[in-house]
Amino acid sequence: MVSTTLSIVRDAMVTFPERSRELLPGLTVTAIVAAAATFLADHYQAPLMLFALLLGIAMNFLSGETRCAAGIDFSARAVLRTGVALLGVRVTFDQIAQLGWQPPVIVIVSLVVTIGVSTLLARWMRFHTLFGFLTGGATAICGASAALALSAALPAHPGKEKATTFTVIGVSALSTIAMIVYPLIAHLLDLSPAAAGLFIGGTIHDVAQVVGAGYSMSQETGDVATVVKLMRVAMLLPVIVCAAMITRAQGDGRGTRPPLLPWFAVAFVALAAFNSLGWIGSATRDVANDVSRWCLAIAMSAIGMKTQLKELAAVGLKPVILMVIETVLLACLVLGLSHWLG
């Protein structure tokens, strides 16, 4: 027992420096871009997340650089999730309760309708039915993370890997476009900060872009958008259960299953609970907010570096049309339901 423990510790001590050297170049460039974006945002009184995204896109050649690729990917995933988890210190359950019963209803209805219509459209466009389930789930829940989770849960079929790759690329590209366009739509519709947060949190695919779009408008909009988005993330659980039932029905029990809920969503809820109980002091909350802001700026820089819109051209027009329809449908559903239930 002791020898096994010592062996694990020894392996970790050997692996950690190697992993650090692998991640350092990419982490360094994303941090530099985030620092530049922070300077520009403070100097010109403009949205930090938008600056970080645009500067990252301008340097997307670095994502193909072998020395930087691992660190950029780490920033876009692990650093992002840490930043989102720390947003929990800004939220209390009283704030969630003040949103009312409408947001959960809107999230559930838009999810069911989006996946259902996507499945029917995929069949009508002569794609595999599960492709519609995959793209619809990714659009309605949490983008690339949902695509990977659902792909792992769905049964194997010809073209599954290609479908998953396209879905990840497509949903990431559309989410980036939505991050820039949807705040403009919210302004044009003269939505209140809470209504804008509901629209942004209920429609944009990936968590990073929801955070970027929400906080580019106001703190209140960002807070509401984050809470609503994490409601959508929580819907990953029942949808994965449905995917597992489909897999079981088709006799495919292979493959490992992803966690039913991402750790950052659980951490967000836990921190919100601690904050609601008054267990987090103001000084700690301020530090967590600053760390979260830096993590999100670094992650947004990495997201920009990983954005390759030209890759969509290689997959043909019909799959792109399907995902655009799903995205527009979700936006119309959220706006329509918000108006109807409001």
From TrEMBL:
It is a multi-pass membrane protein. Its main location: membrane. The keyword Protein transport does not apply. The chain crosses the membrane at residues 23-40, 46-62, 105-124, 131-154, 166-185, 230-248, 260-279, 321-341. Keywords: Cell membrane, Membrane, Transmembrane, Transmembrane helix. Pfam families: Cons_hypoth698 (PF03601). GO terms for cellular component: plasma membrane. It comes from the Bacteria. It is found in: Cell membrane. PANTHER family: INNER MEMBRANE PROTEIN YEIH-RELATED, UPF0324 INNER MEMBRANE PROTEIN YEIH. Belongs to the UPF0324 family. This is Putative integral membrane protein (TIGR00698 family). It comes from Povalibacter uvarum.
